[in-house]
Amino acid sequence: MIDLKNINRRRFMGLAGMTAAASMVPWKVRQALAATPLPAVKEEDAIIGFGHVGPISDEGWTYSHHQGLEAVKAAFPKAKYLEVENIPFSADCTRIYRQMVSDGANMIFSTSNYGDLIYEVSDRATDVAWFECDGRRPADNLSGYYIQHWYPTYVVGIAAGLLSKTGKLGYVASFPVPSVFSGTNAFLMGARTVNPNATLQAVVINSWFDPQGAKQAGTALADNGCDFLFGIMDEAAYLQVAEERGIWAAMWNTDIRRYGPKAYVSSIVLDWKDYYVEQVKKRLAGEWTGGEETLLPMGKGIDRDAWGERVPADVAAKADAVRDKMLKEGWSPFVGEIKDAEGTVRVPAGHRMTEDELYNWDWSIEGVSGLKV
Asked: Taxonomically, which superkingdom (predicted)?
C-alpha cells in the first residue's frame, strides 16, 4: 500500500538569521553525503531520463518540469533524452525506471515523489545520478528537491484577505499531504493579517489532475459562500468556476489566466530550468554527488505570478510589500504562537518554524477545515 502522506510530489536548514543575500540562494536541508562524485560523462554520451506523474500538456505541474527539460536540451544538445508521461503509482513505475537504466541513462529525474517504487531501482543502479522531486530519502546516488512555496502563498493569501467580501476562502486539494497543509495554512495566515475572521474550507478530490472533480469541488465551495478559490491542481477547472460565478481565484504551477482572466488573481509559479541545467552540468563534469535535499527559494524557482488584470493596485502593493520584506530582509511570518485546528499550541511563542518544519507540515491551523491525514 502506498502511503499518501508521502506522495506529496510537489514539494532544509531554517531561515532563522538568514541574510538578504542568502534569501536568494537555494536552501539545503541536507548537504551532500560523504560520497565520491560520479565520473564525468561526455555530453554526446549522456543519456538523461525524465519521468512525470501527468501529461506535459497539463499546463501545470508536469508542463513546468517539461519546460525545465527543454532548457536542459538547449544547454546540452548533444545528449540523448528519455521522457515518460503519466507514470502511475504502481509496479509500472518501477518497470519504467528500470527500463531507463537498461536504456543506458546515467542521470534520471523523477519529477514527482514515488518513494519505494523508485528506490527499488535506484538502490541497485548506483552509477546513475537520481533525483526525486519532493524526495525524502536521499542516498549517495540520489538527491531530493522541491520549492519553498509557502512564502509566495502567504503573499497571495494577503491579497485574498483583502479581496474576499465574505471572508470564506475555498481550497481544492489533491491529497492530505504536507504541500497541501503548508499551502492552506500559509494562505489563511496571510489572509488573516488583513481579515482576522477569515476561514478556509478545503475539499479533497484525491487526484492531482481531475478537471471534473476540481470543477465539482470549486462549485461546492462557491455554493457554500466561498468567494475566493485556491488550490494545488494541475489544471484550470476551478478557475473556470470562479470566472463563471464572478468570484476570485488563485492558481498553482503556471500562468493560466486565459481560462478565467476576470477571476484570476495570481498563481504560485514554478521554474525548474536553472536547477536542472546546473545539476546536469555537474554530472557531466564529474562534480555531482547525491545525498542532498534542496528547496528552491522564492525568487529562484518559485514566486507569485504577475497580478491579474482586475486586482486593485492597492491590494497588489500591500501584498508585495510583504514579499519585498521576505526577499530583502529574510523575514518569515511563520513564528509562534500557532495553534492547530483543535486549539492546541503546536508552535510555541517566539519559535520560528524551520524550513524542515514547513516542508513537513502535516496539521491544519485554526480556521482551516476539511483536511485529515
From this structure: Bacteria
